[in-house]
Design brief:
heterodimer; A: alpha/beta; Alkaline Phosphatase, subunit A; 9-stranded mixed β-sheet; 11 helices; 12 strands; B: mainly alpha; two-stranded antiparallel sheet; 24 helices; elongated
């Protein structure tokens, strides 16, 4: 164990499309569950029962998550949502990104967190996002967030072979991007982005060079992203927030073959990630937060599930006090919202608050827009 | 030929097309702005690309995106390709789900075929398109077991926008499209790929009475479309999409119901043209390109990756004289810059404008452009050398920078950018393109200058 206390780090994993929480942590003893889901329902004999709760069980394809849960490393946030849940993916994801359910916000909650952590923008790598495109959660005017598509080839004008020429060209590039005198919001943003890339690239190229590991990650996009997170974290570049995305959860149809594969890819990748970091004595300072924009309808359609509510999130890490938090939404039809949806039991802004205040040590009030009920998942 | 005319024509062809070579640009200017617009909105006047030759060079499978980029560069009516791309942005259908390449490419062919016609026909073709049906699960939408995915997105993203219908309208819209599905294509072996056909399955269709946007009856999908295209909301929504794509960047679509358009008068002009012409897209486009709000919008949009890539290819002048191998690399290049054609990230399509830019994506854009202009033997760069020779030599560093900006656009740049480019050129003193002894050196300088220009902030705008 390291003797110096390391700064806490947050890894966000966004499941895009609306993960079916009812088929992830399954209320398998409920007749209503099985009656409502003749097509996509997981049979009682197939679920992996929880020891701490005799009404719930894991999807068999989330077995790695079950192992981590049994080891006490996973806090399950049941019934996470917000009032009058929006069923449009884009609007719903926007709400989770900006904490603004009633109006359109353009500031992301992660962006606001980064501003708290590094108010002078001294490190362009305070937040690193992997994958294509920057999620709105990380967007905040003037706050640099480094977005990495390909960690192994990150850098500008790499096709100019002659180093002397490339240095000259980069020098002009830096000057051209340095002037930001009222040329418009987008131009200013471009300038900042260009300069950040130059700064970030010099630092980031160290990460692949320094990394060695015995752990073999599975072949999946989320495993690749999490391995990149591990490489950058281990290079000790001062990154406090990592953002990754895993897509494909919009299972209106063909949920039966599609959803288990996603859960398998996801949970195997998370397990490999923590195994890797533990082996390198770098897991204590990491907490992972896994979320999605909504759960799905209680009743299935002929082959999948439509957009619904009542999602679930996971907080994972060595410093997490594992267990079930909040309440599993009631399956009693009298409690269904709009006669077809689960009722949320805790507001997602309280869970952000939990992570921000209790883990990152930052006042969440103005990041999430108020004070919301928190849970206590850290030991 | 005034500089304003050249700049305005270059603007038109960047937006209504995919850029031009300098020679094409000068020919368009000769023809006159309004005449060019008139030709653009009449694609039938152009000579179509020889499909047999395309087939021979690029094959029917796998190389579709590369072939499409070739079409963008070489179509006699670039607006037709631009509209196929426009509708692909709006009706974003992802290949990743269906993995049936022919269904996806048929959809793009359909968008090319009908995309400049009436809105009614476009939505009807879209609703019968097997790739769309599979993408939004309408093949699972049956009487008694409705799947509302297509019904919802048809209203939210394809025609009206949030706030112009209720949740009940969505449910009834979905019911009206029950039974709209596709037949299985014949198996791959031994005959190869065949596309799935549209199929209306009567016994899966819900014939009950439905109420949709105030209309009640046994509505079928085509009734729904007829009701949609009559809505003023549809005229406004499609007009805003056209404005966002052709004129200036608007915020992302999900915020449209709460964020008013930046130029409400322009949207009204377009929406009125839409209503007056019974939803004739070509007519609306003609009004748009001739409007002052369009002409004044030069460099107000962040180029999409496809626009950036095709603009660079026009600048270096490759792939313009008949098909040749190598187009497919541009499919992966645009993908790295954040736009994988045929496979948008979600049904909302690509986030555009400012969101085309982040650290990773800007790196990909700059690296692509710098690499492509690095070879002085490319025809476009050779033609710049010929023009520079004719420009009166020797050239001062200032004149050299001005000429390069002119031939790379004309590109509008800030004073400081010009100053840094000039400082870079000054290191070489006067430049004499007639001096054959210095040919190699001059070419290298030209390449370096073009690399810096295409790497600039200003070049990211179109």
């Amino acid at each position: 164990m390291s003797t110096t206390k390391k700064a806490p780090v947050l890894v966000v994993v966004q499941l895009t499309g609306g993960n079916d929480f009812m088929n992830t942590l399954i209320p398998y003893t409920s007749g209503i569950y099985h009656d409502s889901r003749p097509v996509v329902g997981i049979k009682a004999e197939d679920v992996i029962p929880l020891e701490v709760d005799d009404t719930l069980g894991w999807n068999p394809h989330a077995a790695p998550l079950k192992e981590m849960f049994d080891a006490g490393d996973v806090a399950v946030v049941q019934g996470i949502g917000y009032p009058d849940s929006n069923r449009s993916h884009f609007r719903a994801m926007d709400i989770w990104h900006t904490c603004e359910p009633l109006k359109i916000g353009d500031e992301g909650w992660v962006g606001r967190l980064v501003r708290e952590l590094d108010p002078q923008s001294q490190n362009v790598l305070t937040c690193v996002s992997f994958g294509q495109g920057l999620p709105r959660a990380c967007a905040l005017s003037g706050i640099p967030v480094t977005s990495v598509g390909d960690l192994d080839n990150y850098g500008l004008m790499t096709s100019i072979g002659d180093e002397g020429q490339r240095t000259k060209a980069l020098d002009v590039f830096k000057k051209m991007y340095s002037t930001t005198v009222g040329t418009g919001i987008v131009m200013d943003y471009l300038s900042q982005t260009g300069l950040d890339v130059i700064k970030g690239a010099d630092e980031l190229k160290k990460a692949p060079e320094m990394y060695t590991s015995e752990v073999e990650y599975p072949q999946s996009s989320i495993a690749k992203s999490l391995r990149d997170v591990a490489r950058v974290h281990l290079a000790d570049l001062g990154t406090r927030v990592f953002y990754t995305q895993h897509g494909g959860y919009d299972n209106h149809a063909n949920e039966v073959p599609a959803h288990p594969r996603l859960l398998k890819d996801l949970t195997e990748a998370i397990q490999a990630f923590f195994t890797d970091l533990r082996a390198q004595n770098a897991s204590e300072e990491i907490v992972m937060y896994v979320f999605t924009e909504f759960g799905r309808r209680i009743r299935d359609n002929a082959s999948g599930t439509d957009h619904g509510t009542g999602g679930g999130a996971f907080i994972i890490g060595d410093r997490v006090k594992g267990g079930l938090y909040s309440e599993y939404p009631s399956l009693d039809p009298a409690r269904w919202v709009h006669g077809e949806d689960l009722e949320h039991t805790i507001d997602f802004r309280g869970i952000y608050g939990t992570l921000l205040e209790q883990w990152m040590g930052v006042d969440p009030t103005h990041i999430v827009g108020g004070n919301f009920e928190q849970i206590h998942p850290f030991s | 030929m005034s500089q304003n005319d050249v700049a305005l024509m270059a603007h038109l062809m960047r937006r209504a097309g995919f850029g031009t070579t300098r020679t094409e640009l000068e020919a368009y200017v000769e023809k006159g702005y309004e005449n060019v617009v008139d030709d653009l909105v009449h694609p039938e006047r152009g000579t179509p690309i020889d499909e047999d030759i395309l087939e021979r060079y690029f094959g029917s499978e796998g190389g579709y995106v590369g072939t499409w980029i070739y079409r963008m560069l070489n179509s006699r009516c670039p607006l037709q390709e631009k509209m196929a791309l426009f509708w692909h942005h709006v009706f974003a259908t992802g290949l990743g789900k269906n993995q049936h390449i022919l269904a996806s490419t048929n959809q793009i062919d359909m968008l090319r075929r009908v995309g400049m016609g009436k809105m009614r026909d476009i939505l009807l073709e879209l609703s019968k398109d097997p790739a769309m049906i599979f993408w939004l699960d309408n093949n699972e939408n049956r009487k008694g077991e409705p799947n509302e995915n297509y019904g919802r997105e048809l209203l939210e993203l394809f025609s009206l926008g949030v706030g112009n219908y209720t949740e009940d309208d969505i449910k009834n819209c979905a019911l009206a499209f029950t039974g709209w599905t596709f037949g299985q294509p014949i198996p791959l072996y031994p005959h190869g790929y065949y596309a799935p056909p549209f199929l209306f399955v009567e016994e899966e269709h819900d014939n009950s009475e439905k109420t949709f946007l105030g209309h009640t009856g046994n509505l079928n999908g085509d009734d729904i479309i007829n009701i949609i295209v009559e809505q003023p909301a549809c005229a406004r929504f499609i007009s805003r999409h056209l404005y966002n794509f052709f004129v200036a960047d608007e915020p992302q679509v999900p915020s449209w119901n709460v964020t008013p358009p930046q130029d409400p008068d322009a949207i009204e002009t377009l929406a009125n043209a839409f209503i007056a012409s019974d939803g004739d897209i070509s007519h609306v486009l003609g009004i748009l390109f001739n409007a002052d709000f369009f002409k004044e919008a030069q460099f107000k949009k962040v180029k999409s990756p496809t626009e950036l890539a095709t603009g660079i290819l026009k600048l270096i002048g490759t792939f313009q004289s008949g098909p040749e191998p190598g187009m497919n690399q541009y499919a992966s290049a645009t993908q790295l810059m954040g736009q994988k054609l045929l496979d948008p990230p979600t049904v909302e399509g690509w986030h555009t404008g400012k969101e085309w830019i982040d650290g990773g994506l800007l790196t990909a854009r700059v690296n692509f452009a710098v690499r492509e202009v690095s070879d002085a033997s490319k025809p476009g760069i050779q033609s710049i050398i010929v023009r520079l020779k004719d420009n009166g030599n020797p050239l001062s560093p200032e004149a050299f920078v001005e000429s390069c900006l002119e031939f790379a656009g004309p590109l509008l740049i800030g004073d400081t950018t010009r100053q840094y480019l000039t400082e870079f050129a000054e290191a070489n003193g006067e430049i004499n393109f007639e001096d054959d002894d210095a040919a190699e050196e001059n070419q290298a300088l030209l390449v370096s200058m073009l690399q810096l220009i295409v790497a600039s902030r200003e070049y990211q705008f179109g």
